[in-house]
Amino acid sequence: MKFSFAALLLPMLLGATACAESEPVHADPDEVEAAVKEANEQATVTREANAAK
Questions:
Q1: Which of 22, 26, 42 shows the shortest CA–CA distance to 34?
Q2: What are phi and psi of 42, to 5 degrees?
Q3: In angstroms, rounded to a whole number, what is the distance separating the alpha carbons of residues 40 and 26?
Q4: Which pLDDT value is given to residue 33?
Q5: In whole angstroms, what is the distance from residue 45 CA to residue 42 CA?
């Protein structure tokens, strides 16, 4: 029994393409900056806690 790899690959490629489509998300720059600052602060706290162990 012969299989055509193109017949198997095409639906997977189409599915992957459909999943890869996205829409732009508009974010407030101040909110992004605040979230980055918060994440950096949390990373610093975690890093210091791990260093103290």
A1: 42
A2: -65, -40
A3: 22
A4: 93
A5: 5
The one-letter code for the residue type at 25 is V
Residue 21's pLDDT is 63
Q: Supply 9's token pair.
A: 């690959």
Dihedral pair phi/psi, residue 28, rounded to 5° = -75, 125
- Residue-wise pLDDT tens digits, 24-43: 778 899 999 999 999 999 99
For CA atoms 6, 11, 16, 18, give the dihedral sign: positive
Extract the tokens encoding 26. Answer: 């508009």
pLDDT at res. 1: 46
- Owner of token pair 């489509």: 21
pLDDT of 47: 93
